Amino acid sequence: MDLRLECEQEVDGRWLAEIPQLPGVLSYGVTAEDAMAKAEVLALRVLAERLEHGESRPVEFRISLATAA
Q1: In the predicted model, is pLDDT for residue 66 greater than 90?
Q2: Which CATH architecture best describes the domain 2-65?
């Protein structure tokens, strides 16, 4: 599993980070780093929940961090 973390600044100044491969894993932050950190935490929680409930098998995965523009 290869997860990609995307981050962009909204017109209102907030930063939005998401992992498209995991539906619903997106978060806002005051800075790009804040938004990306929150998205990473949420992604790890989603993956852990899937494993705990038998919805997924353990697999090798990578998270690629985008650089803030």
Answers
A1: no
A2: 2-Layer Sandwich (3.30)
